[in-house]
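Same chain as my last thread, 551 residues:
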Amino acid sequence: MEAAPLSLTNVAGGFIGGIGLFLLGMHMLTEGLKLAAGRALEDLLGQWTSSRSRGLCTGFLITTLVQSSTAVTIATIGFVNSGLLTLRNSLWVIFGSNLGSTMNAWLVAALGFNFKIDAFALPFVGVGAVLMLVTRGARSKALGQALAGFGILFLGIDVLKDMFSGLGGHVSLEEFARPGIAGYLILVGIGTLLTVLMQTSGAVIALIITAAQGGLMSIEAACAMVIGTNIGTTSTAILAALGATANAKRVAAAHVVFNLITGLVALGLLPVLINFIEEIQQFLAQPASPAVMVAMFHSTFNLLGVALMVPLDPWLIRSLSQRFRSRQEEASQPRYLDHNVVSVPDLALRALRLELAHTQGLACEGLRLAAAPVPDEARIARRRDTLETLALAISDYIRRISTAALPATLVEALARGLRVLRYQQATSDLSQHGAALHGHATACGLEQVLFQQALSALAEACDGSKSEFSPAAMELALENTETAYATLKEALLVAGAAGHLDIRDMENRLRQGSLYRRAAEQLVKAQRHLLSLETPDAHPLPDDRLEAIPG
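reply #2:
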């Protein structure tokens, strides 16, 4: 492509046109590859991240394939948001994605200056256009879009290369840069700002490489701007994490931390890294092309960043886990389960008793909320979700204890602990199901109010997490609840038979009352077994009527 005469109009037109072609080509390439791959990339991201090394390789591979670290970052945050990826594994996908983004610089450096770009790029545009316009399959059209985008991307590089090579003999950006570290910081800021504005580091790096190759800036200045592009990519992750779960915000924060630490280290070691790259090129007997040097620098300092993250990984996970904690997540964390005392069964059993008293409080609160005149279904659901999360942690804790050689009394105590947990979960489920029936029936008088008051009192009396708990008060509350339920049931049947209450409404109220009664029974069973855990060789308080009910 013949260079146009140098003028302000030609420079502005070449700059805007070249960037526009590059952005258009990058968009077509990325979207086409994602569509052509279908769900394969999502499956790869979701399944092949079980360790740090596999997460790193997966992030690198997918980013290299789709040529967009932004797409991989957003997808990773989405997977964490939905619970398909753990925080630890997702971090290494992000780190691998940063490393994979360096392949874009190599693509520009290796192909953009070593071939006659017209002859190289135009066939891709032609073949891609034919596939897009002639074929019918969605995959083949997407492949055509990717091929056409690949060609257009290099046509944009060709425009930028010609524009900068013509400008290089007349202007040097070095004249506008301040010397020393202050000048480097300004260049880092420019690279960051351009990346935030364009929302793609690939286009900015292509611009930097072509400017360096055209003689507009030194290798040091180009490398400083490349550091800025790495920092600028964090803006997308921050935006994607707004309104997301706590873990998704932690992933975005890890992305920011990684790029800031990597950028600071690269800036501090800038002369050293450039000398190191020059030594490598001399050893390989390769000419010190500015484009290749910038690409090598980009890969080198990202590799250095990944190496730094290996020892920092435990600290980073621990620090992030203590931040962005939602109220719900705080409640879902075990309060007493200490894995350091698992090897001491008596201490472990005490921690288990305390945690089960905590979950007993959640089950009691769920029943109290359900017994309110207008049940708060959202709060009941949150209590249930919290209890289910804690139940997983408690079950895992019991499994860890049971791996040791235990006396028979402790084995029996662990079995009781599991039974307590089962009763508490049943209480929570029944409370939620009963509350869901509230909108399907109307209030039916004093008997309903008395039953609700009896349920609330029973839930209060069964809350073993409170210091004023009394077994006698619990038993009295159970008797009152049974009496109130019998009275309500009789009143509902009479009202339905006399035609004072719609039969469907009567059935809904009977069903709701039955669910609440069963919830109360399960709650009392849980508290009785919880009491027996205070003395592992004791047996639960006898109650033939309750024990006969399937639990």
